[in-house]
């Protein structure tokens, strides 16, 4: 194994032939022994040599390698079956000669390193080593200039599942498993991964990321977005609202709002207002003692002295849920 096929000349063919001048002499007599040694034997020898050389050329192995090894001229045209965490050092490219090649098969999940015995030798035009990824395969060839190597992937497809894709990781072609539902491919500038691009509640509450987008179901978690708002009257009717379960008419000038999705605590901001009433100086204020995570109560004071109903009231609120 590991030998380039070269031309086999026919040695001894028709050596020292007789004069063949037509005379009847002993030297011109046709004899089996003479024909055999001058024609038949040389042809047979050449045929045997060709057969042996072709066997060497095409008998490609595989050859098992499980320890760190120098890849030499004798590995020409071989299948090298590699196992373990090992380094394969390529003999100087000029020594191997242009056109030399071997196929390197990584037979397990350990990454294999292809190194260079001569630092000036290149691999794919770069003076750096390369690796063979898990279950990967490379053909390594000496370039035409005889000063480096070219690699060609022989990988079987690493895909195993519908939706998988092939991409190049740090070691070569690799499988990227299909992402879960509603995830998208994202690049970090080096590698690919599947991510959920929607902002989480925590990202919305922090409110600083510029790499995620907001979905309708998480908009409310941003600190600058109102958590509930409502317009109602003093009979307990809601005109329009968001995130409000109900309102109650507690007494003259008093009402309570029940919030659908509660705040995380009673520490949130409310901004109330009124429309009309029996006194132009009517004002509204929050009775903080009755402000809870899931409800808040208000009293409309007429002229600041007594509770009084107005026409409508409005409330908008901000805080953390």
List the helices and strands and how they pair.
Layout: H1 32-58, E1 63-65, E2 69-71, E3 79-82, E4 87-90, H2 93-96, E5 101-106, E6 112-116, E7 122-123, E8 130-132, E9 137-142, E10 148-153, E11 165-169, E12 172-176, E13 184-187, E14 192-195, H3 201-206, E15 228-233, E16 238-242, E17 244-251, E18 254-259, E19 269-275, E20 283-286, E21 295-302, E22 306-307, E23 312-318
Parallel strand pairs: 1-3, 2-4, 3-5, 4-6, 7-10
Antiparallel strand pairs: 5-9, 6-8, 9-10, 11-12, 13-14, 15-16, 15-23, 17-18, 18-21, 19-23, 20-21, 21-22
Structure summarized in a few sentences:
The protein has 321 residues and is mainly beta.
Mind explaining what this structure looks like?
This protein has 321 residues and is mainly β. The model has no long low-confidence stretch (mean pLDDT 83). Strand 20 (283-286) and strand 21 form a beta hairpin. The longest helix has 27 residues, at 32-58. The protein starts with 31 loop residues before the first helix and ends with a strand. Among the domains are: 63-153, Sandwich (Jelly Rolls), CATH 2.60.120; 165-195, no CATH class; 228-318, no CATH class. Helix content is 12%, strand content 35%. It has a six-stranded mixed beta sheet. Strands 17, 18, 20, 21 and 22 form a five-stranded antiparallel beta sheet that branches. It contains three helices and 23 strands.
């Amino acid at each position: 194994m590991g030998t380039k096929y070269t031309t086999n000349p026919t040695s001894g063919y028709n050596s020292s032939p007789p004069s063949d001048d037509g005379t009847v002499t002993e030297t011109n007599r046709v004899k089996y022994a003479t024909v055999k040694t001058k024609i038949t034997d040389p042809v047979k020898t050449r045929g045997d040599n060709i057969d042996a050389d072709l066997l060497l050329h095409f008998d490609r192995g595989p050859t098992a390698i499980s320890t760190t090894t120098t890849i030499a001229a004798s590995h020409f045209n071989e299948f090298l079956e590699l196992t373990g965490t090992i380094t394969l050092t390529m003999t100087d490219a000029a020594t191997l000669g242009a056109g030399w090649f071997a196929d390197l098969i990584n037979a397990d999940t350990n990454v294999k390193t292809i190194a260079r015995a001569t630092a000036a030798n290149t691999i794919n035009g770069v003076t750096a080593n390369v690796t063979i990824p898990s279950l990967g395969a490379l053909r390594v060839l000496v370039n035409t200039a005889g000063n480096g190597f070219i690699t060609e992937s022989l990988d079987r497809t690493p895909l195993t599942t519908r939706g998988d894709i092939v991409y190049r990781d740090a070691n070569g072609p690799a499988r990227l498993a299909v992402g879960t539902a509603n995830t998208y491919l994202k690049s970090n500038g080096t590698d690919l991964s599947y991510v959920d691009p929607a902002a989480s509640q925590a990202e919305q509450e922090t409110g600083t990321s510029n790499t995620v987008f907001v979905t309708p179901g998480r908009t409310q978690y941003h600190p600058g977005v109102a958590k509930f708002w409502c317009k109602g009257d003093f009979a307990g009717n809601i005109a329009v609202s968001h995130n409000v379960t109900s309102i109650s008419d507690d007494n003259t000038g008093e009402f309570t709002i029940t919030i659908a999705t509660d705040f995380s605590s009673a520490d949130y901001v409310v901004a109330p207002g009124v429309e009309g009433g029996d006194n132009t100086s009517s004002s509204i204020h929050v009775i903080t003692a009755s402000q809870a995570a899931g409800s808040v109560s208000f009293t409309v004071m007429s002229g600041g002295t007594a509770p009084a109903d107005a026409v409508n009231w409005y409330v908008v609120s901000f805080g953390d849920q």
